From TrEMBL:
Annotated InterPro entries: UTP_pyrophosphatase-like, YgjP-like_metallopeptidase
Gene3D superfamilies according to UniProt: Metalloproteases ('zincins'), catalytic domain (3.30.2010.10)
Source species: Nesterenkonia aerolata
Domain YgjP-like metallopeptidase: residue ranges: 88-165
Coiled coil start-end: none
Pfam families linked to this entry: YgjP-like
Protein name, as recorded: M48 family metallopeptidase
Lineage of source species: Bacteria, Bacillati, Actinomycetota, Actinomycetes, Micrococcales
């Protein structure tokens, strides 16, 4: 048996999922920016608050290690272009954006601007790199034809990153998997 409750801890929403099957362990993750805490049925409110704060502190440390600044993204994009695209793709800017909710990245070929979904900030860097190579390839080839795929496939982790992102998208788009 499960019970879902929406709480606010330190001004931020928390979805608490209480389970009668769970005896001791507490686990947590984030879904679209909301902390989801899975706890034993009888865990007190003060214990939920304590675990919420612990998880947030751990997540902040992890995010600080994993998040690249926009300038670091631009530098990395230029490195990837040099390594996998013979330096031909030269972006004018690369930045995180909160406005992209359905695409991982986008490119404006006219001005060389690349935007990456901020939802990827805590994903592994090899996944971010794969999306960067994809967007860099769009600076050279606008569509998704064979020439484009050949460029993208120069990055050795393209297939794995595509599978990773497909799995994340599937999980985010199927709420029954989140409960």
């Amino acid at each position: 048996m499960q019970q879902h409750e929406h709480l606010e801890v330190d001004g931020e929403p928390v979805l608490v999922i209480r389970s009668s099957n769970r005896k001791r362990t507490v686990s947590a993750d984030r879904v679209d920016g909301t902390l989801r805490l899975r706890v034993p049925w009888r865990l007190s409110r003060s214990e939920v608050t304590r675990y919420t704060r612990q998880f947030r502190a751990t997540q902040q440390r992890r995010d600080a290690r994993n998040t690249r600044s926009d300038q670091a993204l631009l530098t990395r994009a230029r490195e990837l272009s040099a390594e996998f695209l013979d330096g031909q793709a030269q972006p004018s800017s690369v930045q995180w954006t909160d406005r992209q909710r359905t695409r991982w990245g986008s490119t404006t070929s006219a001005d060389g601007a690349i935007r990456l979904s901020a939802r990827m900030q805590t994903m592994p860097q090899w996944v971010q790199d794969a999306v960067l190579v994809h967007e860099l390839a769009h600076l050279l080839v606008p569509g998704h034809d064979d020439a484009f795929r050949q460029l993208v496939n120069r990055y050795p982790h393209t297939a794995e990153a595509d599978a990773y992102l497909a799995g994340v998208s599937f999980g985010w788009n199927n709420p029954r998997l989140q409960g």
